[in-house]
Design brief:
Helix content: 40-55%
Distance between the termini: 81 Å
Largest sheet: 10 strands, mixed
Mean pLDDT: 85
Radius of gyration: 26 Å
Shape: globular
Number of strands: 10
Low-confidence stretches: 1-58
Structural class: alpha/beta
Number of helices: 12
Length: 350
Amino acid sequence: MMKKKILALLLATVMVLGLAACGGGNDGNSAGAGSNAGTAGSDTGSAGNTDNAGGSGSGAELTFTTGGDQGTYYGFGSVLAGQISDRTGTAVTAIVGNGSQQNIYAMDEGDAQLGFVQSDVMAYAYNGTSLFEDEGKIDSFSTVAALYMEQVQIITVDPEIKTVADLKGKSVSVGDSGSGVYFNALDVLGAYDMTLDDIKPTFQSFGDSADALQDGKIDAAFIVAGAPTTAVVSLSTNRDVYVVELDDEHIDKLIATSPYYSKNVIPAAAYGLEKDATTVAVGAVIIARDDVSEDAVYDVVSGIFESIDTLGHDKKSELSLDFAASITAVPYHPGAAKYFSEKGFDVPTK
């Protein structure tokens, strides 16, 4: 009888120890997952960057406002968000946005932590000019990185519309009201001594503009995005697409008054054009709220630039550290500045 009691006590002790071991194993697995996330973050940054590993291990979650679902902002932004999330411990979710101005508003109100913006629009916000003249400056954000050039594309399906002057009296989409595209349209028209009174303006998104061109409801559309742009590519599968070019005289006049533009070329292959088309462009830039942690923004930049070749988007060929660190209008976030400093680039900070 005594032997049976001893055996029972031994069995109970073994079971308790086994349960304790299982509990310890679960904690160990959780710690392991956190460690792996931290390692992923540090692998994409510089070797031995314990600060970044710590930031990655904290599991920051950032919302990234992009653009319409038929534009380059959303397509490329979704790819970038996926890569940053996969390669660092900072999780980024790309969402559809309503253009540069609205993206800045969303970030200022705390609805997002990252945003895609045009370089001209972010300068307007930071200085309280143009689009932001009425409400005053918004300076609660910093530059993360410049990524690529966004061409001012004047798209038509009418081969008789060859110059901006040919838009007189025509029905032309100038982007959503108050959008960056709208002000780009005003700038380009102004370089040709034209205003909205010289055209019949409509205020439509990229996708709606493409549909209206397809259906013959408008004659042309201003679309400011990296070419090829999804909406225009879709249009080109059903209709012959033409890009209205800008000549050197008017490009020089535009740049003289608005120096954030630069001469640019849309390759013929983008939409099956007969030849390359000359236009102007502004920069596509990622910005972040100032209160996003240094570690999280470091993860964003390193997640993009340490593995450019693995990005599943044509725009990856336009990424470079030189261009990424070239912004002067708005200071850089400390997390971005830290990464660029490690790569030999000094960028302005607040």
